[in-house]
Amino acid sequence: MTRPVIVVVGAGPGVSGSVARRFAREGYDVGLLGTDGEQLVQLAGELEALGAAVGRTVVDVTDAEATTAAIQRFGGFADRIDVLHFNPSAFREKDPLELTVPELLEDVALGVGALLTAVQAARPFMSGGGRVTVTGSMAADKPWNRAASLGVQKAGVRNLVRSLDATLAPDGIRAVTVTVRGTLSTEGAFTPDNVADALWSAAHQVVADWQVEVPYAG
Description:
Blueprint lengths: L4 E5 L5 H11 L3 E6 L2 H13 L4 E5 L5 H15 L4 E4 L14 H22 L8 E7 L10 H21 L5 E7 L11 H12 L9 E4 L2
Parallel strand pairs: 1-2, 1-4, 2-3, 4-5, 5-6, 6-7
Keywords: Oxidoreductase
Organism: Nocardioides caricicola
Pfam families: adh_short (PF00106)
């Protein structure tokens, strides 16, 4: 049997890197999509040291064609994707009177739209027991007006996850977002590693009691 596979969309040094390491320690091989080639090389080395086979692609995930091709390569390698983790969002420090419509749409294309691309690309390689996990934020409920687009992204992606879960559930695939109700930090409850643990737990919920949104308050 081949090892399970997680594809991490928006891979980097924060929560997404911690998620990749958490799953690698549990025996998963890993596909990484990110925008910073040096970060991907470093993360890939860490994952390989944990015993994972790693594929990595530098890609702008708002480029639907390139993202689809990358995910399909990862899926085709082992003919499976067991977990798709989605992490990207755009932070743009502009309040609603400064933010333009094109800027808002650009940010939503990254923080929400790219999830559609990723799931549609991964779906042919997912089967019963597959999971889609998304890093959520309290900005969905309590947005900071100085970063107005971030709240829109996090509210939108949480809503989209509900639709994805309802669509995929009949085939035994579930989707979940973990709403991080705190500020990421280098120590304490809100370290990237602790959030990654919460995402691992959310992906491994008992199906009969499935929650599409799981709050993480430390």
